[in-house]
Amino acid sequence: MKNSLVFLIALLAHRGRCGPKPLLQWDPETAKDCVEWYDNAGDESCEYVRDYFTITPEQFFEWNPSVGLDCGRWEYQSYCIVTQRRLETESPKHTLITATSTSKNIPDKTSSTSPALLPSPTSWNARGCYDDNNSALPVLEYKLSPDGGDTDLTISKCEDSCYLRGFKFAGVREGNQCWCSTFVGGEWTKNQADCNIPCSGYSNTICGGKQLLNVSLRPSRMT
Length: 223
Hints:
By secondary structure, this protein is of the alpha+beta class. The protein is 19% helix and 24% strand.
């Protein structure tokens, strides 16, 4: 009961702040390829949001023309914090944790066209296998994968996607689902070996299990 209550409080506190769709009004001139939005409820400054998501003033102004380079028009509305172009050009390389507890570097498509984003961590911290059998109270907040799953999912791909959206937790589920969150709202499964489904994009690694999530945490110090 206590864990459920804590999770609900955290869910109410964090849901609605960021997401794939704007929940408030937005400028029609916002970047058309925006894939992640920040819903500004007035409790954080424009500069704080830019710094938190490692966005340069020039990038933020390009995506959100109404705000100005100096953040002078920071309104109660939704703002773009990640574009599709940023996802495609700034996705770095990750270390994958394999089913045999060894690691392999899997190169992702990289580009140096926009150096402002700090590199994502070379190795995330594995947090274990979590029960995720309650759709009303998911362990992680946001599912990024399309309906039917991602046919080319890897752990690094999921971690990169979560990192670029500003999340500290990433999770892979049922071999083809990627989830992101600012917190973990669940408990370990009794048998960690139940996370045993290979990743659809790299079969030498494990991407969760049936109604089970392999969760990883972004390290506080970038390496």
